[in-house]
Amino acid sequence: MLFKQFPIFENVRDEVLGDLAARCSWRTVHSGRQIITAKENSSDVYFIAEGKVKILLYSADNGREVQFTEFGPYEMFGELSAIDGRPRSATVEAEEECRLAVLTQEQFKRLLHEHSDFAFAVLNQLASQVRRLSERVFEFSTLTVHSRILAELLRLAAPVPGKRGQALISPVPPREDFAARVSTTREQVSRAITKMAKDGVLEREGKKAIRVKDLERLRKLVSKAKGE
Q1: Which of 36, 189, 193, 219 supports an S-S bond with 92, CB 3.0-4.6 Å?
Q2: In angstroms, rounded to a whole number, what is the distance separating the alpha carbons of residues 51 and 17?
Q3: 3-state secondary structure of 179
Q4: Using CA atoms, how far apart are residues 118 and 101, in angstroms rounded to an integer?
Q5: How many C-beta atoms lie closer than 10 Å to residue 196's C-beta?
Q6: Predicted model pTM
Q7: What phi and psi values does residue 117 have, to the nearest 5 degrees?
Q8: Are 168 and 176 in contact (CB under 8 A)?
Q9: Per-residue pLDDT in tens (0 to 9) along the chain, 228 residues
Q10: Is the Cβ–Cβ distance between 190 and 143 less than 8 Å?
C-alpha cells in the first residue's frame, strides 16, 4: 500500500490508510509546472508518490525566487489551507515529473474527525514544519550569507556508509535553486563552495555531487556561526 511508505503515517492503522487511499484521486504534473500558486483560493491536499516539488515565493519587486524547502516521494503538502480555509501561503512547483495523490478539503477533514491516529499524524507534520521554519527564520535573521550556505550544505549532506566523518550531497541542487534556498546569488554559492574545497572541507565529484570530506569541521563551522 502506497501510504504505508509515508514516514508521517508510521503509526496510522492499515484500515485508515486504506480509507485514505480510497478517497484520493490521481494527478500527474510535468517538471516546471506549478501545482499551487501563492494567494490562490484552493484547498486540496497532495501526497507525493513519485517526483519532487519545491516550495517557494516570488518577491513582488523583481520576481526573485525565494525557495523555502523541497518535498520528495512519500511526503504531504497543502494541508494548511485545507485546515484553515485561507489562501495558499506559498507556491509549489514540480521540480521533476510528479505523480500525486490528491485529497479534497472535505475528505481531508472527514479523515481528521473520524480517525484520531490520522489527526495525530497531521499534527506531527505541522509541528515538524514549525520547527523547520523556526530554524530558517533564525538563520535568515542572524547568519551571514556564507554561513547560511554552509548550513544548507550541512542539511543536504548524507553520511557515507563505511566512510566515518564523510558525507555526500547528491544530487547537488542547481546553483540557482541552491541560491534561492538561502536568499543569495549563484555566484556567492559558487564562491563559498570553492573556498570550502580549498580548505579541504569539500570535494566536487563530477557535476552532480559534492563529497564532504570533513563533516565534523562543517558541523563546527555552522555551530559557531549559530553561537551554539
Answers
A1: 36
A2: 21
A3: helix
A4: 16
A5: 23
A6: 0.76
A7: -70, -35
A8: no
A9: 899 999 999 999 999 999 999 999 999 999 999 999 999 999 999 999 999 999 988 766 666 677 778 899 999 999 999 999 999 999 999 999 999 999 999 999 999 999 999 999 999 999 998 898 888 888 888 999 999 999 999 988 888 887 788 999 988 888 888 888 888 888 999 999 999 999 999 998 887 899 999 999 999 999 999 888
A10: no
Contacts of 60 (CB under 8 A, 6+ apart): none
- Copy the grid coordinates of residue 12: 496510522
Measured CA to CA in angstroms, residue 101 lies from 48, 56, 70, 145, 177 at distances of: 7, 21, 17, 37, 25
DSSP state letters, 103-161: E-HHHHHHHHHH-HHHHHHHHHHHHHHHHHHHHHHHHHHH--HHHHHHHHHHHH-EEPT
Nearest CA-CA partner of 8 in 20, 22, 24, 25: 20
Q: Residue 107 corresponds to which cell in the numbers above?
A: 475528505
Is 16 within 8 Å of 115 (Cβ atoms)?
yes
Spell out the domains of the chain, with CATH numbers in brackets: 2-140 (2.60.120.10), 143-226 (1.10.10.10)
The answer to whether 80 touches 89, Cβ cutoff 8 Å, is yes
